Every structure is written in structure tokens, then in C-alpha cells.
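hiii so um. not sure if this is the right channel but i have a protein structure encoded as C-alpha cells and i wanna go backwards to a sequence. like what aa goes where. can anyone help
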């Protein structure tokens, strides 16, 4: 199953990246803005969010459908915009992302901000213009993506994260931060794939629980890798969380406690998949293990 999963990830990474390249080519804009958007968007990355969206769809419909690509590409564009802005001097002030210079170092701060803005807004245009989607699907996907990426989701998560750097936080607040900052877009990935596949209300409710736990698993593993990871594999500096005084699971629970907490959430995530009637042989189960054990 490991090789099968790797092949699945690589195939759908390629599909999404080709779609994003096509979307970027359709724009008629100034070269500097286009270059800055393209620099961060095509700089690499695991593409786990769009792959998760496609995997969820295939858990119900078995085979790939091109109708998933606009949502998958839009999701990755919003994720990339968030990374560009996270790296800015006013936020995390990072100079390395995915093994290359961050956008504001490669270009300049103003251009990086505008490239992030452009990726965010273009994502909604992509979904709205997809002829493979019904009008009802477009409205629901745009509504949900704006909710998960906006003040009810990722943006508030970032604000809370910045506040926690100054004041510290307890475990409950940390989980709230990551459910919003990291988990919100993962929730969109799972629910969008399920909606496009025609999942029932009961299944959607169970999958929302799954995505909540998966988001926490993803973030805890990120925190663990910032302590134990290989800088070359990660493509960024190890130990930056400690340098930036970030509240993390290893900091609050110790390394062994963080690992135990992660395993607890893995168990809850898999239970939620079963409640959604997802087959244990599906890619969603395999991706849960993959995210748990990843080294970058």
C-alpha cells in the first residue's frame, strides 16, 4: 500500500501542478506580479491539501474526476498565499521556504504581499469559472473556502498564534489555534471532496470530525519535526519555533507527551472515517498514517 499511496500522491500532485500552471498562464498581468506568484506556487511543496481533496472524492466515487481540480488548485493557491504572508518580517520573518529564498527575500516585501493577495482572490475566480461544476457546487465551495480561509478560520488562527508568542498559551488554546490556522484548510479539502462526490449529511458530519483530528495530527507532527527533523528534508530551519517563542505541543507536553497526544488523535481520526463509511483500504486511511509518520 505504501508504494500505491506514493504513486497516488505523485500522480495527483502532477495533475494539480499542471492545472495551476494552466491557470497562471490564463492571466494577463504584469510580469513581476506573475513571476512572484509563480515563484512561490510552483516552488514545490507536498500538495497534501489538494491530494487530500482528491482522495476524499475517490473514497466515494472510486475514480478521479477533473471536476476536483479547480477546488484543489484554488486550495493550494490559498495555502501558498498564507505561507508568503507568514514568512513576512511582520509575521514569522523567515528567509527560507521549501529550500529556497522566501518570496519577500527573492523579490521585495511589497511584491510578496501583493502576490499573496493575488493568489487568494484568484482562487475564487478559478472555482467560479469551472464549467464542470454546477452553480450550486460553485456557491457552496466558494462559501466554504472563504469561511475556512477567512476570519472564521485561518486568519483568526494566525492572529491567535501571534498573540500566543507574546503571552504563551495552554493546551486548550493551542488546539484552538491549530484547528483554525492549520485545520481549517484541511477541513475544506475533505469536505469539498466529499461534497463533489455527493456524500450524505451524516457522512459530512463524520468527515468534519475526521478533518479536525487530522489537522491536529498534522500540526503536532510539524511541531515534533521542528525539534527532531532534518533541515535538508524540511527545507527550512529546525528550531525556529523555539527561537520565535511559539507555543508547541513538545513545549507544553514534552516530546514523548506530544507523540502520545498525536497517536490519540490518529485513533479518533480513523474512528471518524469509519463513521463516515469510508473503506479502510481507501487512500484516506493511508494518508492519515502518512501524515502521522512523515519526515518533512
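sure thing!! here u go:
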Amino acid at each position: 500500500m505504501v508504494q500505491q499511496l506514493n504513486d497516488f500522491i505523485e500522480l495527483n500532485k502532477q495533475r494539480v501542478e499542471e492545472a495551476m500552471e494552466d491557470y497562471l498562464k490564463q492571466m494577463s498581468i504584469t510580469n513581476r506580479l506573475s513571476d512572484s506568484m509563480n515563484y512561490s506556487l510552483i516552488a514545490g511543496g507536498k500538495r497534501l491539501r489538494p491530494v487530500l481533496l482528491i482522495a476524499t472524492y475517490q473514497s466515494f466515487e472510486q475514480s478521479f474526476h477533473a471536476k476536483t481540480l479547480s477546488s484543489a488548485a484554488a486550495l493550494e493557491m490559498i495555502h501558498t498565499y498564507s505561507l508568503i504572508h507568514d514568512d513576512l518580517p511582520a509575521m514569522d520573518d523567515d528567509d527560507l521556504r521549501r529550500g529556497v529564498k522566501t518570496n519577500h527575500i527573492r523579490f521585495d516585501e511589497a511584491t510578496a504581499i501583493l502576490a499573496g493577495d493575488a493568489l487568494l482572490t484568484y482562487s475564487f475566480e478559478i472555482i467560479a469559472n469551472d464549467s464542470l461544476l454546477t452553480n450550486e457546487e460553485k456557491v457552496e465551495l466558494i462559501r466554504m473556502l472563504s469561511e475556512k480561509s477567512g476570519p472564521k478560520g485561518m486568519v483568526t488562527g494566525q492572529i491567535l498564534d501571534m498573540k500566543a508568542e507574546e503571552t504563551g498559551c495552554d493546551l486548550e488554546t493551542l488546539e484552538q489555534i491549530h484547528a483554525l490556522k492549520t485545520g481549517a484548510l484541511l477541513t475544506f479539502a475533505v469536505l469539498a471532496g466529499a461534497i463533489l462526490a455527493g456524500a450524505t449529511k451524516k457522512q459530512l458530519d463524520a468527515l468534519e470530525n475526521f478533518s479536525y483530528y487530522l489537522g491536529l495530527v498534522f500540526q503536532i507532527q510539524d511541531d515534533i519535526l521542528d525539534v527532531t527533523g532534518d533541515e535538508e528534508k524540511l527545507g527550512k530551519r529546525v528550531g525556529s519555533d523555539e527561537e520565535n517563542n511559539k507555543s508547541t505541543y513538545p513545549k507544553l507536553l514534552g516530546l514523548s507527551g506530544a507523540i502520545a497526544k498525536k497517536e490519540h488523535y490518529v485513533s479518533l481520526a480513523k474512528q471518524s472515517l469509519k463513521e463516515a463509511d469510508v473503506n479502510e483500504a481507501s487512500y484516506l486511511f493511508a494518508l492519515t498514517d502518512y501524515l502521522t509518520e512523515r519526515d518533512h
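oh and The mean pLDDT is 92.
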